[in-house]
Amino acid sequence: MTMRILVLAHNHPSLHPGGTETVAHELFREYRDAGHEALFLAATNRLHREPHPGTSFQAIGDSRDEILMWAGHFDRLSMSQIDLYGFVPDMKNLLETFRPDVVHIHHLLLFGVELPTLIRRTLPDARIVMTLHDYYAICANDGVMMKSPQEQCAAFEQGGLCSCIEDVPAERMRLRERYIKTHLEAVDQFTSPSAFLRDAYVRWGIAGEKIELLPNGRPDVDAALARSTLCDARNVFGYFGNLTPWKGIEVLLRACKRLIEADVEFELRVHGGAPFQGERFVDEIDALFDETSARVTRVGPYRPEDIPRLMQSIDWVVVPSVWWENAPLVIAEARQHKRPVIASGVGGMAEAVKDGVDGLHAQRSDVSDLARVMRLAAGDPDLHRRLVANNRQPPSVAAVAERYLRLFAKLKAAPQNAAA
């Protein structure tokens, strides 16, 4: 059965190559290649594009089935789209023109949490599937479920209410919660790449049977060769991703400083930039890079297609995030290239990396413990070999897309009241 599938993400990977945007776009291409009529709609704002007069839509490259929707009028606290005169009529017109059988939402950021309700009212027979990639609906602090790197969000516990934003009264946060939950009722089926994230949404109030576990997939690639070395040492570490406070780059650099002071033989190669970060944070990590320059190389931003080449220069991938994460793309990429991962032992990271089996855990936000684990890894090539031997390849994006297509067909075959 051929379907029309509308795929929505809060950005386009060519503008912002984040994990959610990448996963959404890869699934879109698989739907299209499987013979379905697919359309990829990515939101954008002034960080990447200026608005065009008279329309919310913009082109992205030469593709006819990928478009941008300018959605700069967005209230981040309430996750609400407040442009009732531009965005809403244009979105309604797109839905009525394309008339998708299925709308696959990957994020409501910029679009607004009202989107599922708008879809339901415009296209009563369409099925709405939403993949949960983070905790944005639960926590107003950019969805990290942390009030600070040391304090978790109060909404992490069942019945808890997010209080991460200073000067926002509890009454307003409770209204935010109820408003978001009301609009999410229009979603027919949620999916989650990790059990940890699914369980967080169940505690928050989404029915468990309405959230299906469905992992993220990766395109097939040839694994990078092991790093060439004249000795047996496996002591070159790699960091991949944007440099942000929540990704733990500060913790990692301070751990490297400890290793340098202890005269440990190692190298760290940092891949990624620090776009849209505050001046204070940038100054702090710049200073740490200067202090660790004897052993740390700041490689800089990279493109997804660069990863196989960059992996050839490292032995380990370090994921030192101080928030819970969900299903970090970098862990799947490390697995594809048979690089064991050192990760913070919490959240989706602990679920993806089995401590002592195919990777190693370090305590979150703990400079001393991360330095300890890196020192162990750098000094034991046999440990590296054992972990590589237990490496688990991620599922292919084609296989994951096929599971989604079966889910879509099942929802379409069910009566509307059964699917909702």
Share of helical residues: 25-40%
CATH fold annotation of the largest domain? Rossmann fold
**CATH architecture assignment name of the largest domain:** 3-Layer(aba) Sandwich
Q: Structural class, judged by helices and strands?
A: alpha/beta
Lateral arrangement of strands in the main beta sheet: 3-4-2-1-7-8-11-12
- Supply the CATH class of the largest domain: Alpha Beta
- CATH-level-4 superfamily name of the largest domain: Glycogen Phosphorylase B
- What is the molecular shape? globular
First CA to last CA: what distance?
21 Å
What is this structure's SSE topology?
Elements: E1 4-9, H1 19-33, E2 37-44, E3 57-59, E4 66-70, E5 74-75, E6 80-81, H2 87-98, E7 102-105, H3 115-122, E8 127-131, E9 146-148, E10 151-152, H4 170-184, E11 189-192, H5 195-204, E12 211-213, E13 236-240, H6 249-261, E14 267-271, H7 279-291, E15 296-300, H8 307-311, E16 316-319, H9 329-336, E17 341-344, H10 347-352, E18 359-362, H11 367-378, H12 381-389, H13 397-413, H14 416-419
Parallel strand pairs: 1-2, 1-7, 2-4, 7-8, 8-11, 11-12, 13-14, 13-16, 14-15, 16-17, 17-18
Antiparallel strand pairs: 3-4, 5-6, 9-10
Pfam families: Glyco_trans_1_4, Glyco_transf_4
Protein name: Glycosyltransferase
Keywords: Transferase
